[in-house]
Amino acid sequence: MANPSGVGSATRGLRRIAGAQPPQLPVCRLTATDLQALVEHEWIVTNGIGGYSSSTVAGIVTRRYHGLLVAALSNPLGRMVMLNALLESSQDASGKRAVLSAEPGTLAEFRLDGGIPVWRYELDGASIEKRVFMPYRQNTVIVLYRVSGAKPVTLHLTPAVHFRGYETPVSEALHEPYACAVDGSQVQLSAEGLPPLHLAVEGKFEFIQDPRRLEQIGYAVEEARGYEFHGSLWSPGTFVLPVSPGTAVALVGSTEDPGVMQAMSAAEALDAEVERKRRLIEGAHPAAQTGAAGQLVLAADQFIIRPVGRVRDTVRASAVGEEVRTVIAGYHWFTDWGRDTMISLEGLTLATGRKREAGFILRTFSQYVRDGLIPNLFPDGSDQGLYHTADATLWFFHALERHAEAIDNWSLVQEVLPVMRDIAEAHLRGTRFGIGVDPADGLLRQGADGYQLTWMDAKVDGWVVTPRRGKAVEINALWYNALCLLSRWEHDLGDQTRSQKYSQAAARARESFNQKFWFEEGGYLYDVIEDSRLEGGANDSACRPNQVLAISLPNPILDQQRWATVLHTVRNRLLTPVGLRSLAPGHEDYKRRYFGDLRTRDAAYHQGTVWAWLIGPFIDAWLKVHPDDRTGARSFLNGLIAHLPEFGVGTIAEIFDAEAPYTPRGCIAQAWSVAEVLRCLVKTSG
């Protein structure tokens, strides 16, 4: 049977343990070979602390975020591009040169081998296989070249740098002059006030010093997105490496102490990383160990990090025998977001067998509750969270429950119950940003001028695109679910008075919800009722996917007799092969494409644009209405599985255009996209 995802399996580099056959690592192959496709397809590897290495398959940088080494440094520096690019060419004995990074005619294959990008270049009489990987929890990148065939080659590797924050425009001035020091097998580049970049070669080489600027580098994606798109890079010179057939050489770039870099060889570091990935597959749910699900286990690993930039958090956690963990919401530009973390937790950690780390994540966020809210996000380079969110804290209840059920242990619930109780009380009396229960009907309302508080949070130049101020459908579905969970926790842990209080609050909210949110004319749910931006506080009848949560959550707030009708509407008007539209076609604000400058993109972000993560709640709702149709439910994932070899190869994009061909957009790798598809693959297995 054909495999539309392009995901296979490989066992190369794995060792057997006690004679048992190890689980196979997935292979994801890219079939496109023309230059435009190689530029439009991107790859990423990460280091478990927030840093990464990423570029296009062609090796041409198109984003400010691209870099062979984007290091995660201690605050206030945050993530910094330290090694932007590597200009690669080969030379044979006759002197004939071939550029490796941008000539698709020489590229015979690109694949992800166990999550590690591999390029195979075919030259006259020689084959070069290149791998790029990062040792776990090091700000280090290793580029490993293996040569096979009949003839030797000489590699010419020219590093290019522009030390800057990863969000900094590419037009920012270089830190000239960079200091360049050569010592044995290492070259050190440094700029005032920043950590040095160490470049080392493993193998025979000559370094030809040739300090120079590379002017007017163009960044095509930045141009398309309306940002500064011309900048300069600086190169210290070129490494010249003669390589015989059957041998390997490596270039290492790092901001770590040179002693850390030299702790193991490139081959040993590769074996260690392959073994780590093998263990990830082995520890995952049995339904997530092969094929597309296996690839998604490795993709999920990229988002779970130890945030080394927040040193205070690490020290505090270590003092009580804990470890700090968080979730990067998406690559390249997101940091850790509370909402994305809680929605993603089940797929990223529980489906992958990383239950202990799930506990670390939940404890980490419990330490940050302020006025009944968890942080919406942590800005890069900052220790302080921003709290403008009405739903992230309610998703916290859901994530905590899913973790407790997965480990069949309620000790963490008992530990953080006072925090969860304080959250509920803050919502009942009212807290920041107008978030609070309306005493007239028990429903949760939210809204404050200039703030975007729900997951539909686009804002540009002070313009909140979808303010949704009032009583939003999914906010109240989440609130009801949280009250039901809290009531049960209080009951099971012995406080019957509190249990009854929260149970009564839930019942009141449910009664009001079913009276007020039903839009009879459309046969679905209002998106927001008593919307303060509408005349007279009217109800917003826009058909949006948020209503699915009224069915999909463990404690559904919507009366069961209306489930099938709502689901039918959502399927007919919002479902696509790659997720749910954020707004149904026909609405005056509907946008078919997500493209252009920031203002144009944000105008479309939640106005039709398809979101992959929403396929998870849709499948949950589908299985409630059709409990015996796991096969049908699984079929809704086919388009997203087929998406794996494109855009961000081996992972799942943040968003897609609202109409065919559903072009992937936004982040090349999004935590909740990966998490929800993986969770649903496991849920619909068997």
Structural category:
alpha+beta
Approximately how much beta-strand content do the residues carry?
Answer: 15-25%
State the helical fraction. Answer: 25-40%
Distance between the termini: 18 Å
Main beta sheet: strand number and arrangement? 10 strands, antiparallel
User: Compute the gyration radius: what is it?
Assistant: 26 Å
Mean pLDDT: 92
Describe the fold and architecture.
The structure is a single chain. By secondary structure, the chain is α+β, with helices and mostly antiparallel strands. It has 2 domains: 31-257, Beta-galactosidase, Chain A, domain 5, CATH 2.70.98; 284-683, Glycosyltransferase. It has 19 helices and 37 strands. The strands form 10 sheets. It has a 10-stranded antiparallel sheet with strand order 1-2-9-10-11-12-20-17-16-15. Strands 3-4-5-6-14 form a 5-stranded antiparallel sheet. It has a 5-stranded antiparallel sheet with strand order 8-7-13-19-18, with no helix packed on it. β29 (518-519) and β30 form a beta hairpin. α10 packs across α11 (473-492) and α11 packs antiparallel against α12 (496-516). The protein is elongated and about 85 Å long. The protein starts with 6 loop residues before the first strand and ends with a helix.
